[in-house]
Amino acid sequence: MSAQIIAGKKISDMIREEIQKETADLREKGVVPGLAVVLVGEDPASKVYVGSKEKACQQLGFHSEVHRLEESASEEQLLALINQLNNDDQINGILVQLPLPKHINEKAVIDAIRVEKDVDGFHPESVGNLVIGDDSLLPCTPAGCIELIKRSGVDISGKHAVVIGRSNIVGKPVAMLLLRENATVTICHSRTANMEEIAKQADILVVAIGKAKAIDSKYVKPGAVVIDVGINRLPDGKLCGDVDYDDCLETAGFITPVPGGVGPMTITMLMSNTITAAKRAHKIGE
Hints:
Blueprint: E1 4-5, H1 8-28, E2 34-40, H2 44-60, E3 63-69, H3 75-86, E4 93-96, H4 106-112, H5 124-132, H6 140-151, E5 160-164, H7 171-180, E6 184-188, H8 195-199, E7 204-207, E8 225-228, E9 232-233, E10 239-240, H9 245-248, E11 254-255, H10 263-281
Parallel strand pairs: 1-11, 2-3, 2-4, 5-6, 5-7, 7-8, 8-11
Antiparallel strand pairs: 9-10
């Protein structure tokens, strides 16, 4: 029996329709959600991401600003721009596209964004709120993973979830969000002994390690939900995930493809965070 494919694009489109409706309702109240994206330098992948974010804003009816700084821009210049955006009432969300040039301290930049405008969910206060279960803007990719699971009709509560990967951007926050949904959570990483054995116990397996096709069906419990966050380019130019999709297709119960799984959700959850931030800024009930 082949796994049910979790179509990230379809679920993402559904959420965007909901956001579009909400944006129209807010506009009637005189509120236009505003997102500012800051791009430093000419990184090709970053330019593509920024373009996608700009396009999403236009489609949803948001106010959108893209601030492009030269690769040589100083940390002081970038912090001055963030300060300006922090104090701009038209802007509800600020996103600084990572990675930054080496001469700029990434942590100092993330810390400078006002927590209520931190639509990436990377600020230490946002992370702290996530850990203790307080209200916060959630990191986009992990929040997208949870939406994919829920909107596929899977109840997370009481399940054993195994997260492979412990990055601050995906692994740790997705583990916290699964815990918030009442899963029992195990985190595996490069030093984990018996990883195959542990992963095979998972009802929900989330993989975010940045290694092409590293996880095959030997790691998957029959009928498990497999969420593949990885995106890797093979020598032939094709994209693939951290999970060997073809090998796991017959074993998993649900699986995300790459591309077209988790990827489309990230920008959609960014838009969702921006509208949440706009509602909070104008004290409009959620």
